[in-house]
Amino acid sequence: MNVFKTNTINKNLILITLIIAFVACNKSYSQVMPINLRCEYLENAIGIDATTPRFTWQMSGNTSGLSQKAYQLFVGTDSVEVSNGKGDIWQSKQIDSSTIPIVYQGQKLQPFTPYFWGVKILDERGKWSAISSVAKFETGMMEQGNWKGSWIDDSHDYNIKPAPYFRKNFNLQKTVKSARAYIAVGGLYELYLNGNKVGDHRLDPMFTRYDRRILYLTYDVTKNLLSGKNAIGVILGNGWFNHQSITKGWYFDRAPWRARPKFCLNLRITYDDNTAEIISSGQDWKTSLSPIVFNSIYTAEHYDARLEQTGWNMPDFNDSKWKNVICTNAPSQNIVAQTLQPIRNVEEISLKEMHQFDEQTYLYNFGRNISGVCRIQVAGTAGTTIRIKHAERLDKNGRADLSNIDVYHRPIDNTDPFQTDIFILSGNGEETFMPRFNYKGFQYVEVTSDKPIQLTKESLKAYFMHNDVQAIGSIHSSNPTINKIWEATNASYLSNLFGYPTDCPQREKNGWTGDAHINIETGLYNFNAINIYEKWMADHQDEQQSNGVLPAIIPTGGWGYHWANGPDWTSTIAIIPWNIYLFFGDTRLLESCFPNIKKYVDHLDEISPNGLCNWGLGDWVPVKSKTPMEYTSSVYFYVDATILSKAAKILGKQKESEKYVALAEKIRNAINAKYLNSETGIYGSGFQTELSVALKWGLVPENLIEKVSRNLADRVEADNCHIDVGLLGTKAILNALSENGYADMAYKVASQETYPSWGWWIVNGATTLLENWKVDATRDISMNHIMFGEISAWFYKGLGGIFPDEEQPGFKNIILKPNFVTGLAQFEAKLDGPYGTIISSWNKSEGKVLYNVTIPANSTATLYLKDKKILENGNKLMENKNLQIEKNGKDMLKIYLKAGNYIFSITK
Is the pLDDT at 333 greater than 80, yes or no? Predict the structure, then answer.
């Protein structure tokens, strides 16, 4: 979406001879209720530190034109009282507002406290709803001083390879009313109570700049405790905290925080008599090395089952041979709650086929590329060593081939093979292994053994791992290739969601900033990922230097401040908060990041006083044409300054807004003075990227938009309607075409199945997006990369026409500019926005287009359609209280829609 122009006329809608009908919505009134209550965008959130949490809800009911005029919120410590409309912590008055989120304004929230909340709403008819079902949220530590006990580890030597076990016995003599476990870790962990793993999370806590911020998690463990003897067990993994793999670059093995994994745990128990007890980590804990003899987040995990200590996390285990723990320092004094969707084994992947080479070698094909792990069940003699190699492709002999992804693997010996788990059997019957502290990117798994073993199709299971974010968007069309591109893009997006957006799940796993801001809309149209981005922007704040500079990968161990971190990449600091604001109508992240955006833009202004910024990575992995890096970096300098000016205005900083409006105009003028030929309407050499980014980001003077757009279309046509762009160009090319009169051409480019195109990957068997347009490239050929993923967002925008409205963000008002493109018979886009489900769907049949629109309760839409005869007949044919029609320009109809379901029958 062009965020810098409002009311841009889409000039490529099909010419329509007549609008036949408007289907009226159901006029019967239904009971209105607040539904889908969320606190901090999570359902019944536990362990939050927010002092002023945000509340959201949606309206039920099928009445057309349904809207909220006011609300009353109740927050209390008694669920029954809240359900009866009484809040002892906050009971708001009637607040005349229809927008969300709502920010808490009651009494100071206390730590370790469950709170209940409900809401009732006043609808447009002046009728109050009943109070909603009661929702819950629970505070965590809230303040650093509430932590008890010590940070502990087993050694100060971070070169020790086996993962450590920790345990503690304790007795409970009273009846437990509730119990919560709070755990903060440098590294990764699994927590056990009485032999059972607590929760189903994987790879907690999420990666941060450990010496500046540590995340902790909260668990309800009430049901895990026993009367009498109990035992706590903890296993620690290295994660990014103790990077033991020797790799090329990135400095993680030299990170300033690097140490042996460590943790602090508080088990807070409340008894029936309302007394409380805290069992915390300290010198009375015991430790031992585990059977996990090596673990690396980057390479793999090695497990020696002969070293297992059965019952190590049970109360009756004899730990007399275990040693005492070491009390140590906290990695950071800033320990905050992890409030986002956890990483899980989200999906078990069905096996496509298995091939046995011999009695020691098996090849499993799971039919699709994923991020995740495998679980193997196998029997064999003691000491049998099994290697489980994960690969994206096969060599000419049908064996697992890592040559496309092991380019950065630089081991010092052969003990740490890339993406290859090692499982040494104990010989005790059938045994099971699944890595705890690692994930890989793969489609194929080759299992080899140094002794004969018997495996079946059921012996190996694959699990797709990622942050378990809710899918909120979907598209479907009559073109199978388009559908598969969307599926592949989303698979790559999820494969790169591990507490921060990564580039690939195998060879790097780095939080490349450019990849992430290019795909922010793809994430937000498809998934409820706001919590992930809020966490990652806090990572940005941790990594920003005092002069405003950000690294190219975030989090980082120190690499990335010297290369690849120009504004074309690190504009994440501005672009992501801005898009969160557009999609959610929530100013919190924008306000939090405002000083950081300002510091960054001021630095760019200082080093680029003429408005042109010659610092960046450029249009990465182009097809053939190379756009000047100064041009694209300066464009993103302009983008950042423009967002900063808009943010300042929204936040009431008028003088700063004016200052950065002027800066943005200076940059725009400087770019146009050097790169725009105003006579020809050509930017630079007239390459696709040069023309499309100027249109996409609003650099083109108004009087030249039509000429520049025509030049872009001519350039694309000269390229045989195929892309000739790199990463930055993929963000712009389809949008620039569809938003400026050439939607048919944009669709033709998007749906190509020959090289170079997204469809070219699909017809060659890809189930995720590639890193290079060439499927047989000799470098830059990870087969699960998200960087070219903007196309998924474009389906919602360029075909469905669904845009957030900058003036009423969060889809409070929806901008609809559908394109009924030539060559596509049917298309549907659905989006569960903050106010409910939005549908923009069209179908062509017998010379007509049936256009279906659903606008959720408490929101509106502005629909743009183009045709002269609509202008002549529209007011007669669509007289309805839920519609307002006006002319918008020479041949554009602007239709205002209230909440409801609409069908427009359009004859060509």
Answer: yes
Paired with 676 in beta bridges are: 683
Q: Is residue 881's pLDDT more than 90? A: no
The verdict on domain 344-466 having CATH code 1.25.40.10 is no
Give the helix/strand (H/E) hosting 540. Answer: helix 530-543
Question: What is the pLDDT confidence band of residue 890, given thresholds at 50, 70 and 90?
Answer: low
Q: Which CATH class, in words, describes the domain spanning 18-25+816-907? A: mainly beta
Q: Classify domain 154-340 at the CATH class level.
A: mainly beta
Neighbours of 765 (CB within 10 A): 13
Residue closest to 670 by CA, chosen among 616, 607, 606, 611: 611
> Rounded to the nearest 5 degrees, what angle is found at the Cα of 74, between the Cα atoms of 72 and 78?
160
In the chain, what are the domain boundaries? 18-25+816-907, 34-63+68-139, 154-340, 344-466
Pairing of the two strands 848-855 and 900-907: antiparallel
Do residues 895 and 883 make contact, with C-beta atoms less than 8 angstroms apart?
yes
Beta strands in 281-337 (DSSP E): 286-289, 292-295, 301-304, 323-324, 326-328, 335-337
Count of C-beta atoms within a 10 Å radius of residue 272: 10
Superfamily of domain 34-63+68-139: Immunoglobulins (2.60.40.10)
Instruction: Work out the average pLDDT over 719-725.
Output: 98
The mean of the pLDDT values for the chain is 94
Nearest to 783 by CA among 797, 794, 798, 768: 768
Angstrom distance (rounded) from CA 819 to CA 747: 10
Provide the 3-class DSSP secondary structure of residue 724: coil
At 591, phi and psi to the nearest 5? Answer: -70, -40
Q: Do domains 154-340 and 344-466 have the same CATH topology?
A: yes
Give the β-pairing of 214-220 and 196-197: unpaired
Q: What is the pLDDT of residues 27-77, one digit of tens each?
A: 445 689 999 999 999 999 999 999 999 999 999 977 789 999 999 999 999
**The model's pTM:** 0.95
